[in-house]
Amino acid sequence: MKLLTVDTSTNVCSIALSDGSRFVAEYLFSPGKKAAARLVPAIRELLADAGLPIAELDGFGVAFGPGSFTGIRVGLATVKGLALASGKPAVGFSSLAMLAQNLPWAAHPVCALFDARKGEVYAGIYRCRELPEPLVAVRAVPPAELVDGICEPTIFVGDGAVRYRALIAERLGDLAIFAPESANTPRASAGAQLALAAFAQGDIPPLPLLNPVYHRLSEAEVARLAAS
Q1: At residue 222, does pLDDT exceed 70?
Q2: The Gcp-like domain covers which part of the protein (predicted)?
Q3: Least confident range of 184-188, 207-211, 224-228
Q4: Cα dist. 149→74, 118, 161, 172, 183 in Å?
Q5: Which domains does the chain have, with CATH numbers?
Q6: Cα(7)–Cα(194) distance, rounded to whole angstroms?
Q7: Rounded Cα distance, 173 and 164, in Å
Q8: Residue 133 and residue 151: Cα distance in Å, rounded?
Q9: How many degrees, rounded to 5, is the angle at CA 10 between CA 84 and CA 88?
Q10: CA-CA distance, 197 to 218, in Å (whole number)?
């Protein structure tokens, strides 16, 4: 299955082209505030470099969150547009599960963390075998509250683990294991494995139901609730 996978959930965007279990190409770039302007040209460049017309793709995968609200919307809108135009299916997957997939067959549970700002992290805890299996549901939580609920050796990965490393290490001591720096960046190539599994299981939603999963209210939603 020729699959194009997109992740725009953090400040490092990535796109990957795979053919079954074989990875063909992957681009990573920092879009700043121009993800919407840079994503489609990057996809065109990747496909051109691989010599593959978009019509020959069999499907698409995309990270649906959590992460940057704007980034997630850009990635989903782009993939849904490409899927609609090409008539090919698209599946979504958790951005944090994709991050945890950087550590397959880990000896301990993996706590994938994105910095959610406002003193919180987006957190998901997984048992990582060939694919990550959720142990604790994804949520937005203060890092101190998160680590106070951990009582076994756990591997921390992601920019949230980097930002709150001192707090995590102080509270957990030897129970805290930190992933190598190279594992802290989510990659579309890891997400492609999750997307391929979703296709294999027939977990293919109608395009209108492929939506963001933020795990936290936006500032606009908070303001509306406060005003009501």
Answers
A1: no
A2: 36-127
A3: 224-228
A4: 34, 20, 16, 10, 24
A5: 2-95+187-227 (3.30.420.40), 96-183 (3.30.420.40)
A6: 12
A7: 13
A8: 19
A9: 15
A10: 30
Whole-number Å distance between alpha carbons of 79 and 53 = 16
Q: Tell me, what's the pLDDT at 227? A: 62
**What tens digit of pLDDT does each residue of 117-146 get?**
999 999 999 999 999 999 999 999 999 999
How much is the pTM?
0.94
Residue identified by tokens 């939506």 is: 211
Q: How far apart are CA 213 and CA 18, in angstroms?
A: 25
CA 165 centroid distance within chain: 21
Q: Are 35 and 71 in contact (CB under 8 A)?
A: yes
User: What distances in angstroms separate CA 214 from CA 10, 11, 65, 94, one per listed residue?
Assistant: 13, 16, 6, 10
Total residue count of the chain as it appears in this document: 228
Write the pLDDT tens digit of every residue in 145-172. 999 999 999 999 999 999 999 999 999 9
Question: Quick one: 197 exposed, middle or buried, by C-beta within 10 A (0-12, 13-18, 19+)?
Answer: middle
Alpha-carbon distance of 46 to 167, in angstroms, equals 40
Phi, psi of 106 (to 5 degrees): -65, 145
Which pair of structure tokens corresponds to residue 30? 């920092």
| Residue ranges of E strands in the chain | 2-7, 13-19, 22-29, 59-63, 90-93, 110-117, 120-128, 132-141, 154-157, 176-178
